Amino acid sequence: MPGMVLFGRRWAIASDDLVFPGFFELSLRVVWWIGILTLYLLHRGKLDCAGGVLLSSYLIVLIVLLAVIICTLTAIVCVSMKGTICNPGPRKSMAKLLYIRLALFLPEMGWASLGAAWIADDIQCDKTVVNGIIATVVVSWIIIVSTVVTIIVVFDPLGGKMAPYSSAGPNHLDSHESSQLLNGLKTAATSVWETRIKLLCCCVGKDDHTRVAFSSTAELFSTYFSDTDLVPSDIAAGLTLLHQQQDNIRNSQEPDEVISHSPGPPQEADLDAELENCHHYMQFAAAAYGWPLYIYRNPFTGLCKIGGDCCRTRTAEYDLVGGDQLSCHFGSILQTTGLQYRDFIHISFHDKVYELPFLVALDHRKESVVVAVRGTMSLQDILTDLSAESEDLNLECGVQDCSAHKGISQAARYVYQRLINDGILSQAFSIAPEYRLVVVGHSLGAGAAALLAIMLRSSYPQLRCYAFSPPRGLLSKSLYEHSKNFTVSLVLGKDIIPRLSVTNLEDLKKRILRVIAHCNKPKYKILLRGCWYELFGGDPDNLPTELDGGAQGHLTQPLLGEQSLLTHGSPTYSFSSDSPLESPAKYPHLYPPGRIIHLEEEGTSGRFCRAAARYSARWAHESQFSKILIGPKMLTDHMPDVLMKALDSVVSDRAAYVFCPPGGGSNVDMVSLNPADWIFLATQS
């Protein structure tokens, strides 16, 4: 529901958010009260020492004070459990209860201070009683400090501007006033977000690119968050309900609905060949991350393997540029790719906003010059990711509407200028003129690689690009169609990044608003059952995803509805399920690069365990990634090490199927062949 209004301002917490923190404090207070009561009853006869009367009075008052606090907390928890997210009527007394609870902190603080003063006087009484009072003072101040921290966390800098309208209905303001309010909130929100980002990224730098990135990121966040009146727990509950809803829809689909057609033999052969290429070039995309990813993938042996390289200095002999621990990076790159020192033309770990690390190497096995661009690994890279406006590009590719993600296009332009102006590609092709150019990358690096490939295509017509887990919001429609001729993207499972764009985030927000507005369960039940579902699974049919028609009679007032969760009717919204979302001019619909191979997990291998996971591969259309899917693997599916394991599995399984089809045999000695050889032979047959 909308955030509570206390002391004349809105706070980033709702009246139904106090079930879990209230129950935790209530449990602590009850145990504390029982302990103090037991201490007093068992030791009151030993308080005849000097100062004993004061201690006895202290314990009695504390017992009474704790009893009053326990009663107040019980009322807060009980009231917070009532109603639903969009039906706050049963919780209208919550503000008064919170005022009472906050007022009780004043005598508690005074009593805790008094107890600390008495302890400092070194009262000579029963040690058990004294130790009990010491524990009481410590616990009191821990709770007080925790409450202050909580108040700071839920403080909303824009709360003073939103409070006068937080309880108004969607028709409270006319369209002109609503538009003015929304613009004012966005302006204030942009300023607040820019301040937050500058504090978070205080060590990044102060150059022009960084300042532009700060402004772009702040505007993105303010655009996305300023027109809704949701608190963080509402979003968590909405994501939980969406996950169950998506699983329910998927389970109800027939197999032929999931895969509408079976690809023919030519497509299968092409898929096998491209999978083998992806399997090979993913090593270069992973190598671009340097030693951190290598150590992460090899936690027990990695440091031993590259330790010797870390102690050597090769920067004078080899073209390594920028960053620290370059020799460690070089050692991990050698281990990951299996190449020799002489095979590398250029390695750069220079890292700034809009400027990405990359490497250039000669791949003799595939007879290619490989350019690998690193993905997100720093705050600078995150700012590049979040500069999500659309930018027009000046490209010589014969395509109209050449627009793309601003931050990634500038990063690609930086790599392009380095490759061309510094003569890096000329040097590579002077050594191996018959080789072809291949550009690869993962995540942010995949997006930069795809745009870099478009920039280089006119000079290198045989160029190929392999984009691993690229962002969706990257290319205009025309550039997306153009990139299909030379780019292959690989997506694993429910990976959120290939589904992530400003348009998809707006769609996700719209779906969250709808699902929580149509839910007839209290938030604490949604979150509890949602946690159980995420951890252990279950039947999504048994979980609340929409409001039953007969349940409306039990509500104390009508549901607030979806419009009430907006700051007075954001003009960009239409809540018809069939209505397309309007995209702001700065954030038009953008698409992922190239043809897409989708790796999907077969069956279930546990919600987090991947030891026995098996995958299938198929060509997919970009429309299959037009919605963000919610699930426990939406983040882990993006990790490069998980993607590499999935590629190993699917390439081996498909090769084994080719040579050992069901019911048949093969005379090929498969033990002596690696997956790449299997795929090569399969495509030659």
From TrEMBL:
GO biological process: arachidonate metabolic process; diacylglycerol catabolic process; neurogenesis
Segments forming domain Fungal lipase-type: 370-503
Catalytic reactions of this protein: a 1,2-diacyl-sn-glycerol + H2O = a 2-acylglycerol + a fatty acid + H(+)
Gene3D superfamilies xref list: alpha/beta hydrolase
Protein topology in the membrane: Multi-pass membrane protein
Cofactor names: Ca(2+)
Enzyme class: hydrolase
Transmembrane segments: 20-43, 55-77, 98-120, 132-155
Known EC number: 3.1.1.116
Pfam short name (any one): Lipase_3
Subcellular location: Cell membrane
Domain of life, per lineage: Eukaryota
Keyword Methyltransferase: no
Record keywords: Calcium, Cell membrane, Hydrolase, Lipid degradation, Lipid metabolism, Membrane, Metal-binding, Phosphoprotein, Transmembrane, Transmembrane helix
Major location category of this protein: membrane
GO cellular component: cytoplasm; plasma membrane
One MF annotation (Gene Ontology) recorded for this entry: monoacylglycerol lipase activity
UniProt-listed PANTHER family: DIACYLGLYCEROL LIPASE HOMOLOG-RELATED (PTHR45792), DIACYLGLYCEROL LIPASE-BETA (PTHR45792:SF2)
Designated name of the protein: sn-1-specific diacylglycerol lipase
Gene of this entry: DAGLB
